[in-house]
Write a structure and sequence with these properties.
The complex is a heterotrimer of chains A (about 475), B (about 325) and C (about 300).
Chain A: H1 9-19, H2 25-35, H3 39-53, E1 83-90, H4 95-109, E2 112-118, H5 122-134, E3 142-146, H6 150-153, H7 161-167, H8 173-178, E4 180-181, E5 184-185, E6 188-194, E7 196-200, H9 201-206, H10 216-230, E8 238-241, H11 248-260, H12 278-290, H13 304-312, E9 316-321, H14 324-329, E10 340-343, E11 357-366, H15 373-383, H16 386-396, E12 399-400, H17 403-406, H18 409-414, H19 418-427, E13 429-430, H20 434-437, H21 441-456, H22 463-478
Parallel strand pairs in A: 1-2, 1-3, 8-9, 11-13
Antiparallel strand pairs in A: 3-11, 4-5, 6-11, 6-12, 7-9, 7-10
Chain B: H1 12-20, H2 32-66, H3 85-92, H4 94-126, H5 132-144, H6 147-157, H7 164-171, H8 187-215, H9 219-227, H10 232-260, H11 264-270, H12 279-288, H13 292-321
Chain C: H1 16-31, H2 33-66, H3 69-72, H4 87-94, H5 96-129, H6 135-144, H7 150-163, H8 170-195, H9 199-206, H10 211-240, H11 243-248, H12 258-263, H13 275-295, H14 297-307
Helix pairs in contact in C: 2-13, 4-13, 5-8, 5-10, 8-10, 9-10, 10-14
The chains are: A alpha/beta (about 475), B mainly alpha (about 325), C mainly alpha (about 300).
């Protein structure tokens, strides 16, 4: 029954009732309309109902995978017979959808696409790409790349500015900027991600807080009060969980602390090191103070899933995480079902402080060594189109990179919380300095998260000198630029 | 043993027999038999040597070479010779120095514990008792679990909130539920946590090698000692330990060299935590960041350290044999 | 601990000394009647601790793999599963990619071990029982090859694999796995052959057999325990290998191994880790090894006895 997880909750629930025949045609139309589903979507659902009535086995009781995909108009049909190899998402529940999407593309254009699952770990995926590209091999035509890779991929990519133009859609500017390196658009934004704050609505209410925190100070106050109260019934209860292990995720969290306190972005656009400033130091010290007070000791070894485990076990009042934790928290058997909400991360108190959300997500690129670049570009154009982004949002809960898709009724019906995310993405999104650092970014990030981990675990001595050392180390790395 | 090659130089087959015996009775390279054996010997080892040269020696030499360049995977920057630059940078890096200390600490502590506990386990499964076969099988289980899997598994068992270890400690009132300890996050216990997993995983190996050593000790030696009224403890120190020493040394070599290169366990359990980073994890991190040239330098350092350790151990064994 | 208590003799006591010894033995025994019970209990306690320490983590993997996802993050932790689900196993066993990877791992590990044993045996025979120039150097060369970290040569090996156009093939894995399994087999088997008494082949050769025939007819049958043990060890190493498989095949492709497949199981999104699913896969992957170890448990011990000691 896990397959239900592929389809977002409200629609999913409706769908199950349809398939199990518990819902009449009229009921479906009425409830579907209440959810804001479009007529076409409900039409498809009725088809399922029909199929179910004929006794076709439909194990999950849900829609066929890929039901929401509408093939965009204007795809080239003159590339029939060309072969394209595409490296897509990693092995898992996302694969059937992606295969369905590619099949529709092949049917529409006649281009043959061979799909390969990428590695689950992003570093493994990057190494795989670079191994292929550095030998100038044409094994990969198109692939998805992390938001921090445009700088690394610049020597191996084809300029996709014309594809972006052809989409004629309202892509997030921050991401387009991020993906532009050396005057070329390395990747077309596909789906995005950003750090957000999860909070327990029930607990905030219980302890008399009418609004989620907007500053880190407020978060600390609220967390302390809630912990003090909840410890009585659950001694393990904690206040705030986030990602403190020494890995790329800590770079994201750290950048958010620093930026939200007016402390800049580690390295600025001209590759000048800016990390050594009082506001950044104050932000790091604040985070260090959380460990063992409002956050558990273990937080300095947490990655996304460790934090989500604590959160979803109902043991924390706040969590910093990516939007993926939302639908998991709203799962039918979740302990915190309907007890939480999301908002932008708090800001600090220093000058220039503003809420910050570290950008994540994936882009689509075409390899310079590809022997069928036109066909590959066509595939990218198709996958990044508003139509496909909508389908990815509905069936896979991935976050579109085109702002108008967020206002789409079907998308909102499938993921009601998307409405709240749009302002966060448009307002506070902050990119890691990967494009400025080019292929040296991994070294910079490594130095950064190593130093931060040492600071928050108390291995670094005083923060001021640790940050000073960090700055000179990054300076040293960037000399090679 | 009666046959001497000099005695029957004309009977080829018999001469060959004697020549195969290696202990100083070799007929010399210039004799017909010597040449024949030399040819056969080479014929038989050539495949192995070729394979090793191809998949091990050649890449290794390349790694030595790369450690003197600034090669980056997938970079447009031209690769050039940088001399000792990578090595000076390496020893300037506090993280690398830290990882060296971690590696040495890990090696010494884990090998010491594994040796002592391995010996205890070996003695237990060497003695006669009902169900010995089952116990022997049981202790082999950890060894069959792939390292990546055991790292994931133990990480879960060490989990601060939902881990079984903390849960037991809380139930035994050895830990307060309101402040669950995070064994992997606390820098003072993180390396200990890794050692605990490594010990679990490798005791079977140690115990088996030592058991093999125990089995060749003739039981009449103990008989005699008992007749002399020696205590078990005294017997262990005066008979068991000296006689099991060759096996112990071999086990120590394998374990020390392995421990010094530890990678997957730490990488899966701890990622790049500076508190537990080993030299091999450091190497992987650099190579993972596409710094093939720079990352080759710590790889060379590991190779040299491990080679040095092996040299010392083989010396020890030589002394032992004399 | 090894020997059993000798029974009082019925021989004729020949000397005063012996008489004293027997007397002291009895004194000791009576003094220990209480102590020996305690000692026995301590001994069994020790066995219990060893067995629990060895088995508990694997038990925990099984428990976790049978726990429904929603109960995984729940306190207090239960030592027995509160609710069973076979979902994770059925999911793993219906996953075509995983089954394919299982098959790949079996092929790669088996072929690697067979090749390593074949080349290793003839090589080790030469190194252990024949005399020729360069023998010591080769022995040290092979030993030194077991010493470096795999990370160190991964880049160079990759280039090599690509040059041979073997990227993303099982052959690439077999060849590179030989880089650790062959030195290992040669090293262990050389010591094994060295330890065999010289007289063995002599008889055969006196009858006119060539060295190779002596190896085939006399030494090899005797070496079976050693071969089985070494083979199993090499198999475990190949089966558990991760880094090479990750590097020389396309991670989500048709030619990857189980270890990589487990690591690449993903949840619905980039960050979700299906932990219980991974544990189910881990149990599936470990069980063949456990069966193997069970089957040759006796052999492992006797094989090592002959092979390892004469380092």
């Amino acid at each position: 029954m896990r397959q239900h997880g592929y389809v977002p909750n409200a629609v999913n629930e409706l769908m199950r009732e349809v398939a199990e025949g518990r819902l009449s045609r009229r009921d479906l139309l009425r409830r579907g309309a209440a959810l804001g589903l479009s007529a076409s979507l409900m039409g498809t659902m009725l088809d399922v109902q029909g199929a179910g009535a004929q006794g076709t086995p439909s194990p999950a009781g849900a829609q066929p995978v890929g039901y929401s995909i509408v093939v965009p108009k204007g795809l080239r049909t003159d590339l029939k017979g060309k072969q394209v190899t595409f490296v897509g998402s990693s092995e898992g529940p996302g694969v059937p959808f992606e295969e369905a999407a590619l099949k529709k593309f092949m049917d529409a254009t006649g281009i043959q696409v061979k799909r390969i699952s990428g590695a689950e770990s992003t570093t493994d995926r990057l190494r795989f790409y670079l191994q292929i590209f550095s030998s100038q091999a044409s094994d990969i035509d198109a692939c998805m790349i992390d938001v921090i890779w445009p700088g690394v991929m610049e020597p191996h990519a084809v300029d996709l500015a014309d594809v972006l133009k052809a989409e004629n859609a309202d892509f997030f500017k921050r991401i387009v900027e991020n993906n532009t390196s050396g005057g070329m658009l390395i990747g077309v934004p596909w789906y995005t991600d950003a750090g957000i704050l999860y909070y327990r609505t029930d607990l905030l209410q219980k302890y008399g807080f009418s609004n989620p925190p907007t500053t880190w100070d407020e978060l600390e106050t609220q967390a302390k009060k809630i912990i003090a109260g909840e410890k009585a019934s659950d001694p393990t209860f904690t206040g705030f969980v986030w990602q403190g292990a020494a890995y790329e995720g800590l770079t994201c969290d750290g950048l958010e602390w620093q930026y939200s306190n007016g402390g800049g972005t580690i390295v600025d656009q001209d590759a000048k090191v800016t990390v050594d400033n009082d506001q950044a130091i104050a932000a790091f010290d604040r985070a260090k103070g959380w460990v063992n007070t409002i956050s558990p000791q273990g937080v300095t070894a947490y990655q996304e899933e460790d934090a989500r485990g604590v959160w979803q076990g109902g043991k924390s009042a706040f969590m910093r995480n990516w939007p993926y934790a939302y639908s998991l928290g709203q799962a039918k058997d979740s302990l915190i079902l309907n007890k939480f909400d999301v908002t932008g991360l708090p800001k600090g108190s220093g000058e220039g402080a503003s809420s910050a959300a570290c950008l994540g997500g994936w882009q689509l690129m075409v390899s310079k060594y590809s022997k069928s670049q036109d066909a590959a570009k066509e595939l990218v154009k198709y996958l990044a189109s508003p139509e496909l982004q909508k389908a990815y949002a509905i069936e896979r809960s991935l976050l579109p990179t085109i702002s108008t898709v967020y206002n789409d009724a079907d998308v909102i019906a499938a993921n009601p919380y998307y409405k709240k995310l749009l302002p966060i993405f448009q307002g506070g999104a902050v990119a890691r300095p990967s494009t400025a650092c080019k292929d040296l970014y991994p070294d910079v990030s490594t130095a950064y998260f190593t130093a931060l981990n040492q600071i928050i675990t108390g291995q670094a001595g005083d923060t001021k000198s640790a940050v000073k050392d960090l700055a000179s180390k990054i300076q040293d790395i960037l000399q090679d630029l | 043993m009666a046959l001497q090659p000099e005695a029957q130089p004309l009977v080829t087959s018999q001469a060959a027999v004697s020549a195969t015996k290696s202990k100083g009775r070799w007929a010399g390279p210039d004799s017909a038999i010597g040449r024949q054996q030399e040819r056969l010997g080479w014929m038989l080892v050539v495949p192995s040597v070729l394979i090793v040269l191809l998949v091990a020696v050649y890449p290794l030499i390349r790694t030595f070479y790369l450690s003197f360049t600034n090669e980056r995977l997938g970079s447009v920057r031209p690769t050039r010779w940088v001399g000792w630059d990578n090595y000076t940078r390496l020893f300037d890096d506090s993280l690398f120095r830290h990882s060296m200390i971690n590696t040495i600490e890990f090696t010494v502590i884990s090998v010491a514990i594994e040796t002592v506990l391995g010996m205890v386990v070996a003695l237990v499964i060497h003695s006669e008792f009902k169900g010995r076969g089952m116990v022997r099988t049981a202790i082999l289980v950890p060894w069959a679990v792939p390292t990546v899997v055991s790292a994931l598994l133990w990480q879960w068992m060490f989990n601060d909130f939902f881990g079984v270890i903390n849960s037991i400690l809380i139930r035994l009132h050895l830990m307060s539920a309101s402040h669950p300890k995070s064994w992997t996050a606390d820098p003072s216990t993180a390396l200990g946590a890794v050692v605990a997993v490594d010990v679990w995983k490798t005791i079977p190996f140690m115990a088996l090698l030592l058991l093999a050593g125990l089995q060749v000790i003739p039981s009449d030696v103990y008989e005699a000692a008992r007749v002399d009224g020696a205590s078990k403890w005294y017997q262990f120190w005066t008979i068991t330990l000296p006689l099991v020493r060759p096996a112990l040394l071999v086990a120590l070599i394998f374990r020390t060299l392995d421990a010094f290169r530890i990678f997957d366990l730490i990488y899966v359990m701890m990622k790049y935590s500076p508190a537990t980073m080993s030299i091999a994890v450091y190497t992987q991190q650099q190579i993972g960041n596409q710094r093939i040239g720079f990352g080759s330098a710590p790889a060379v350092i590991i190779f040299l350290c491990v080679g040095f350790l092996a040299f010392i151990y083989t010396r020890l064994i030589k002394v032992e044999e004399v | 601990m090894a020997a059993t208590e000798a029974s009082p003799t019925q021989r004729i006591v020949t000397s005063r000394d012996e008489l004293n010894q027997i007397a002291s033995r009895y004194r000791k025994k009576s003094k220990h009647s209480f102590g020996s019970v305690t000692r026995k209990m301590l001994f069994w306690l020790l066995i219990a601790i060893i067995v629990i320490y060895s088995l508990f983590p694997f038990y925990w993997a099984i428990v976790s793999s049978l726990t429904p996802d929603s109960l995984l993050y729940k306190t207090p932790v239960k030592f027995w599963p509160q609710a069973f689900t076979w979902d994770h196993y059925s999911q793993v066993l219906r996953d075509g990619g995983f089954l394919r990877a299982l098959l790949n791992s079996t092929i790669v590990s088996t072929v690697t071990v067979l090749l390593a044993l074949f080349f290793g045996t003839v090589g080790a025979y030469a190194l252990g029982r024949l005399h020729f120039r360069g023998r010591t150097i080769i022995l040290y060369l092979i030993l030194s090859m077991t010493m470096f970290p795999a990370v160190a040569i991964i880049g160079s090996l990759f280039i090599f694999v690509r040059q041979l156009h073997l990227y993303n093939t099982l052959i690439a894995l077999i060849i590179t796995y030989l880089s650790f399994s062959l030195p290992f087999t040669v090293w262990v088997l050389t010591n094994f052959f060295k330890a065999m008494p010289d007289e063995l082949e002599q008889a055969a050769m006196v009858d006119g057999a060539t060295p190779l025939r002596a190896l085939w007819q006399i030494l090899l049958p005797m070496a079976v325990p050693g071969l089985v043990t070494t083979g199993l060890l090499a198999f475990i190493a190949a089966w558990s290998e991760f880094l090479y498989a990750l590097t020389f095949t396309i991670p989500g492709g048709n030619n990857t191994t189980v270890q990589v497949a487990i690591a690449n199981f993903s949840g619905r999104t980039q960050f979700e880790q299906p932990f219980a699913l991974k544990m189910a896969a881990a149990v599936v992957v470990t069980i063949p090894l456990l069966v193997g170890v069970l089957l040759v448990q006796r052999r492992i011990v006797s094989g090592l006895t002959a092979g390892a000691i004469k380092g």
